[in-house]
């Protein structure tokens, strides 16, 4: 700035020799104002640049680090695999329950004073070996429900064909927020913290019970081992002789429940091999059969995976058509195509060309995209026959709760999939498929030119879900 001022004064002295002083003063007065305005704008630009960079750092980097802390590989790291039976008085991890290495902090905004509430879901799964002492205990967060279902499956695997059950004494409690009394780390402080996790629907008290089956491992210490190292609870304490207290982290985009998936044995038709391939054998770049928005069959490449874990078990909805000709196991929150019931009456068409034309028109004008949990007997879904022709089949049987191994959610360039010869969307959790595909459009463009784009898909979609959770909360807290 000093050099600029010096040059301006020298230029002014030379300019005065040829023009009147009044003209020179007016010109350079305006010049000073322009210089001052330029400095202000430059400082403002620097501050805005720092602000933008800070927001970008917080949204991308910090968000990614938070997501990594709860990634699907978290429960398969070596320190999580050192399984042991807890003894009375022991808690794991060896930190306070509300620490970030355990179940995380509790905020007053997490506390729930009434149900139904958008932050809690009701455990309404039938045919499970889980019993609740009271009705309030059926309300919990999505993450807690997911962990409880996983724990039930691991108990069935531990004692197959035995009458071993989980007795849930308490989860959510309708209590008001109270201040924690007592120093941090004391027993009174810990008891108050445990109560707060119950008020938020993130804590659970449970025990193992059995009928006509005696085994020395049926006690809270063994239950704690299965809850921590198999089901993935974030913190457990074996404090009471008769039951166990566990808790989980807050629901967020990193929760596996946000991602609709398929099982390891689900099949897709791959162009390279000209045959159906199991989902667990899929890889980036494989061209699979999809359905365009115009109702045309087309091969589209796999450009990424929202979620891919071959070891974990998941809750699925099993949908079967008449005579079990087509069947699919799909996450309850995954989107599937159905013929709209409002203005459609199924009739048998003799001419093949007329039938194909009618089915295509149904897909273009009378299809609707719904959660898989909303499919009921009598619905018509879109399938393909052995000759790769678009057809519709009537749903004959829907099983709301099936536990299978594998959680795989691929994304194609078209945004659709043919799974077990049934057409579904690649989108889950969000009710409006068009908005979700629009939000993913930058990734579709980048994936065409960058082979490594698939490595950031999980974090990109997690960031999108965080934003959508703020703008469209009703889309995410719908019970499915």
From TrEMBL:
Annotated protein name in UniProt: Hedgehog protein
Keyword Lipoprotein: yes
GO cellular component terms, A-Z: endoplasmic reticulum membrane; extracellular space; Golgi membrane; plasma membrane
CDD domains: Hint
A Pfam family: HH_signal
Keywords for this protein: Autocatalytic cleavage, Calcium, Cell membrane, Developmental protein, Endoplasmic reticulum, Golgi apparatus, Hydrolase, Lipoprotein, Membrane, Metal-binding, Palmitate, Protease, Signal, Transferase
Recorded catalytic activity of this chain's protein: glycyl-L-cysteinyl-[protein] + cholesterol + H(+) = [protein]-C-terminal glycyl cholesterol ester + N-terminal L-cysteinyl-[protein]
GO biological process: cell fate specification; cell-cell signaling; intein-mediated protein splicing; protein autoprocessing; regulation of gene expression; smoothened signaling pathway; system development
Gene Ontology molecular function: any one: calcium ion binding
Coiled coil: none
Residue ranges of domain Hint in the record: 259-385
Family: Belongs to the hedgehog family.
InterPro entries per the UniProt record, alphabetical: Hedgehog, Hedgehog_Hint, Hedgehog_Signaling, Hedgehog_signalling_dom, Hint_dom_N, Hint_dom_sf, Intein_N, Zn_M74/Hedgehog-like
Organism: Dugesia japonica
